[in-house]
Amino acid sequence: MPGAIYAEGLVKVFGEVRALDGVDLDVPEGTVLGLLGPNGAGKTTTVRVLTTLVRPERGSASVAGIDVLEHPDAVRHSIGVSGQFAAVDEYLTGRENLRMVGRLYQLDGRQAKKRAGELLDRFHLADAADRPAKTYSGGMRRRLDLAAALVVSPPVMFMDEPTTGLDPRNRQQLWEVIEELVAGGTTLLLTTQYLEEADRLAHDIAVVDHGRVIARGTSDQLKARTGGERVEVVVHRREHIATAGEVLRRFGDGATAVEEHTRRITVPVSGGARLLAEIIRELDAHGVEMDDIALRRPTLDDVFIALTGHAAEAEEEREGTVP
Ligand SMILES: Nc1ncnc2c1ncn2[C@@H]1O[C@H](COP(=O)(O)OP(=O)(O)OP(=O)(O)O)[C@@H](O)[C@H]1O
Ligand SMILES: [Mg+2]
């Protein structure tokens, strides 16, 4: 019995680009699938196919048990999508936008008004509720858009990078909203660049690269696949990065990763606390001053690097700004 979101062998070609090259997904009802992948991996295209906006060349898909290619209208009535159908009307106020969506979904006037009020409170938009949406900041718009996707509680929701551009407080807030939704039985497919977000929200994670799912599992399973622990050292002075790197290379059993601007060096190890003590002695003997040293389990970032050979895009962008 396929899950609430199901896809098999999806292929989508745009000119020369094979955006999807055989994507398979199966999301059990009431769970969250986190779709992770670098820029251009095919995440948005997958969402667009499943939400009936784009027709694939090959493959099949169903959402809430309805065939996406055969009954796109029925699918649209069973889903909520943040960022696309719920397009915000610039000239209407936040409140008017939400009431309009309610009416579109056949709520009566009183219900639509009540629901709009609840969502404005929940997304901290009450103060700006009666201003035209065109006066909203980027983060406020994002929240209005998400609120619009939640006017009715559809059984299946798609969120494409829902927290991009939100400040930490609003991101936290949205996570709580998502957790409530899922506790209420909603099935969610969410794409994100924030590995921490997938870690917190997703029951299952699919890592996509070049239009294919290259790994799949819970965050713990993916971390276990990446293997072992990591020693992470932050040296006090830039000049010590090379020496510390040499030392770690000798103790590690994998490639060292160096982040110049944070002076952080990471290496996979097996040997735990005893090894850590040895590394500290050795760094000391070489006169390397440390700001921090720690033994830690692999993070989703490590998983990402191990699987795709590069960091998640958010990370790359941040590093890209450093000369
Ligand atoms: N309408 C289109 N026309 C041409 N190429 C497209 C179109 N939509 C997507 N692509 C290409 O398909 C590939 C996958 O794009 P997609 O938007 O699905 O990536 P993504 O994983 O969502 O990336 P990001 O993290 O940047 O949002 C990219 O190479 C992109 O340039
Ligand atoms: Mg995208």
UniProtKB/TrEMBL annotation:
Top-level division of the source organism's lineage: Bacteria
Transmembrane segments: none
Chain segments annotated as coiled-coil in the UniProt record: none
Molecular functions (GO terms): ABC-type xenobiotic transporter activity; ATP binding; ATP hydrolysis activity
Topology in the lipid bilayer: Peripheral membrane protein
Signal sequence extent: none
EC number(s) on file: 7.6.2.2
Listed InterPro entries: AAA+_ATPase, ABC_transporter-like_ATP-bd, ABC_transporter-like_CS, ABC_transporter_ATP-binding, DrrA, DrrA1/2-like_C, P-loop_NTPase
PANTHER family: ABC TRANSPORTER ATP-BINDING PROTEIN (PTHR42711), DOXORUBICIN RESISTANCE ATP-BINDING PROTEIN DRRA (PTHR42711:SF19)
NCBIfam families found in the cross-reference section: drrA (TIGR01188)
Protein name, entry field: ABC-type xenobiotic transporter
